[in-house]
Amino acid sequence: MEQQNTGQKVLDPLERAKLGLKVLTMPYSQAEEVIDAYVSEGNYDKASVDLFKDQVATQRHIQEKSAELLSTSSQIIRLVAGAFIKNLPKQGDEGSAASS
Asked: What is each CA distance from 33 to 1, 13, 15, 36, in whole angstroms?
C-alpha cells in the first residue's frame, strides 16, 4: 500500500502481523531494532512505522501489567486460603465447644 501524498509505503496488516509474530517475545529495545531493520529495506512512511512501534510498546506494557496482576492475585488467594485454613475448627475444638 502506498500513501497518495508521499509515495511512501505504509505497513499493511499482513506485514504488521508478520513483524508482530517476530517481535512478540522480544524485549522492546530488541523488537524496535528488528522493526527498524525491516523498514530500512523499503520506503516506509515514518508515521505508520511509529504507530506500529507504539502498538508493540503498548502490547509489551499490557503483558507486563498482566504478569504483575497475576502475581498479585496469586498472593491474595494464598493469603485468603491460609486465613481460611487457619480459622477452620480443629477436630478437638468441636467437643470442647459443645460442652460449654
From this structure: 23, 20, 16, 5
Q: Output the pLDDT for position 6.
A: 64
| CA–CA separation, 17 and 31 (whole Å) | 14
Residues contacting 9, CB < 8 A, separation 6+: 1, 2, 3, 42, 43, 44, 45
- Supply the DSSP string of 26-47, one letter for each residue: S-HHHHHHHHHHHHTTTTB-HH
Q: pLDDT averaged over consecutive 10-residue blocks of the chain (100 residues)?
A: 65 90 90 93 90 93 94 96 91 57
Q: From CA 26, how far away is CA 60, in angstroms rounded?
A: 9
16 Cβ partners below 8 Å, 6+ apart? 52, 55
